[in-house]
Design a protein that fits this description.
10% strand, two-stranded parallel ribbon, alpha+beta, lipid biosynthesis
Length: 102
């Protein structure tokens, strides 16, 4: 369920707001999958076909930020923290109602 919400949110933002420069996505490794592998799985869903057909380059606007919401400072490196502080103008989180589960 959580992944579906993230997919819908990202696709809708990219498709409806073509002027968005970047979407910084905090993502962690999970079950031996790298963040890149996890992202590949997310955008492989047919939900992204409309975007892939009309504006495939928009998927390159997604910038993966390695991190983990269960650790102090979200597990973000100092370098990424600086980038986020300088570049991000809006923030949204998606946490399941019953709490974060690994």
């Amino acid at each position: 369920m959580f992944r579906v919400l993230v997919q819908v949110f990202i696709e809708k933002l990219l498709y409806s707001c073509p002027d968005i420069d970047k979407i910084y996505m905090l993502i962690r490794e999970k079950k031996g999958q790298s963040i890149r592998e996890r992202m590949t799985k997310i955008v492989a869903d047919p939900l992204f076909n409309r975007l892939k057909d009309k504006r495939p380059g928009d998927l390159d606007k997604i910038v993966l930020v390695p991190g983990d919401i269960t650790v102090p400072g979200l597990g973000i490196s100092e370098e990424n923290e600086t980038i986020l502080t300088d570049k991000v103008s809006s923030f949204s989180d998606n946490i399941m109602e019953d709490g974060y589960k690994k």
